[in-house]
Amino acid sequence: MEKQNHIVSAFDRDLEKIQAQIMKMGGLVEDAIRQAATSLETRDEDLAEKVRAADKQIDVLEAQINENAARVIALRAPAAIDLRMILSVMKISANLERIGDYAKNMAKRTSVLSKMPPVSDSTGAIRRMARLAEEMLKDALDAYIRRDATLAAEIIARDEDLDQMYNALFREFLTYMMEDPRNITACMHLHFIAKNVERMGDHCTSMAEQVIYLVTGAHPDEARPKADDTSVSTRG
């Protein structure tokens, strides 16, 4: 019995370490979203470069989380809910890494756009999209820590709002390009940035689905709401 308690205690310590790394990684990704959107709106190339450089730390944390999770599986041989917990952690860290990549890609395009005339208030609209994505990410992390399937379901529903914001921007960019061909290059960059933010929402939704799976043992029954009507794409 004492040996069993020791094993349980060791597993709990390992899990706490991994969860602390997940929260640290999540905080870095939240910062990346916010700073990438700010650098775009203010044309701050130094801040954009900071976002690009910080992505390396996010990648390192994902590698550490995967290594620690694999170690726990090998040494502790977790079963049922414990194994589900470890697998969910690995998938959540993968989603965080992808969101960080999208923020980095936003920052890369900032350097190009800063040398072009602004296109209406498009960067402000993208910042508002990014704020929603950041809120979804924060809530997804909270839902994971609290094991809150209700909050996770709300995040999945909110992804539709982000899709609708993206759709509206996409139509605006088409209008700007048709009105003045000189806007085409800038609008293409802005469109890719808006699409990056929309994809961030998809990954936040995937994280929320992992929370529901972790809590209930089953993935959500209903199809994920999707309001991006500009294209058909593979979800990540």
If you average the pLDDT, what whole number results? 88
Structural class: mainly alpha
> What sort of overall outline do the alpha carbons produce when their principal axes are compared?
elongated
Q: With helices defined by DSSP (H or I, 4 residues minimum), what is the helix count?
A: 6
> The biggest beta sheet, please?
none
Assembly annotation: single chain
Could you tell me the strand content as a percent range?
under 5%
Compressed to H and E, one letter per element, the order equals: HHHHHH
Gap between N and C termini? 44 Å
- Helix % is over 70%
Counted beta strands = 0
User: What integer value in Å does the Rg equal?
Assistant: 20 Å
- The low-pLDDT segments are 1-6, 232-236
Q: Could you explain how this protein is built, in words?
A:
It is a single chain. This protein is mostly helical and 236 residues long. 83% of the residues lie in helices and 0% in strands. The protein has six helices and no strands. It has helices spanning 2-42, 45-76, 81-113, 122-146, 149-179, 184-216. The longest helix has 41 residues, at 2-42.
